[in-house]
Design a protein that fits this description.
There is one protein chain. By secondary structure, the chain is of the alpha/beta class. The chain has a single domain, classed as Rossmann fold (3-Layer(aba) Sandwich), CATH 3.40.50. The chain is built from ten helices and eight strands. An eight-stranded mixed β-sheet has the order 1-2-4-3-5-6-7-8, with helices on both faces. It is globular. InterPro entries: AB_hydrolase_1 (IPR000073), AB_hydrolase_fold (IPR029058), AB_hydrolase_sf (IPR050266).
Length: 253
């Protein structure tokens, strides 16, 4: 396990690292997730050339620290990730980022161009959307006030998201989970979509077959490869790791 201090409190981000050639690949998880369980099978897949791979957990999630005085906005997550990658000696990396992690990775690419040479978003959040108390995940979490969520609301979310998602979501700091969900629902300014459209690096957006992202043609016109992965849902890397690895091989340098 590797780590780096990324916050004035001394809080550390941690990651599992697979050795290999440069440039590195950085795998970023989604809301309530953690990178190693979601990406280990693909990062070590025999179809992919052996490059250095960092399966990193954002602050408040998984094996990383949970500072109480961290804002947990998408921008703050991106800046903390930047600090961790610089401490790890990473530059010109390919970022593979799922769901909420895609919004963080896109923000990072816009703020620290030297760190990111390519971006592969996996069914990522691109736009703001309203909280909804009847939905699981981000919308459901963001519908609570912070103190309400920390006290009791997390129990309703646990029951809605189901045992698979909860297996990693339960590792997240409740305040960090809530603040991240609120920021994700509000998105960034400019939005993740606008940042993605303006990036000058190779970009791809992977989505489940039959569920293309809104504005797919606009993404394509801006040079973003929009690619469907068969027999998969939102968790593409878990649902069809073979097709996911094959697609990564076609996209990674």
């Amino acid at each position: 396990m590797h780590d780096a201090i990324v916050h004035p409190s001394g809080a550390r981000m941690r990651w599992v690292e697979l050795p290999g050639a440069e440039p590195a690949r950085v795998y970023v998880h989604g809301l309530g997730a953690t990178s190693a369980p979601y990406y280990a099978q693909v990062a070590a897949h025999p179809l992919l050339p052996r490059n250095r791979s960092l399966l990193i957990d954002l602050l408040g999630f998984g094996i990383s620290d949970r500072p109480t005085d961290f804002s947990y906005t998408l921008e703050a997550h991106a800046d903390a990730l930047s600090t961790a990658l610089r401490a790890a000696g990473v530059e010109g990396a390919s970022l593979i980022a799922h769901s909420m992690g895609g919004a963080v990775a896109t923000t990072l690419a816009a703020r620290a161009a030297d760190l990111v040479a390519g971006l592969i978003l996996v069914d990522a959040n691109l736009d703001p959307y309203p909280p909804s108390p009847v939905r699981p995940g981000t919308s459901g979490i963001a519908a609570y006030e912070e103190e309400e969520f920390v006290a009791e609301g997390w129990k309703d979310v646990r029951d809605r998201v189901g045992p698979h998602w909860w297996s990693t979501m339960r590792l997240a700091d409740p305040r960090g989970l809530h603040r991240t969900a609120v920021s994700l629902a509000g998105n960034t300014t400019p939005t993740t979509r606008e940042l993605l459209l303006g990036l000058p690096i190779p970009r791809a957006y992977l989505h489940p077959d039959g569920d293309a992202p809104a504005g797919a043609e606009e993404l394509r016109r801006a040079g973003v490869q929009v690619l469907s992965i068969p027999e998969s849902g939102h968790n593409i890397m878990l649902d069809n790791p073979e097709a996911f690895a094959q697609t990564l091989r076609s996209l990674l340098p």
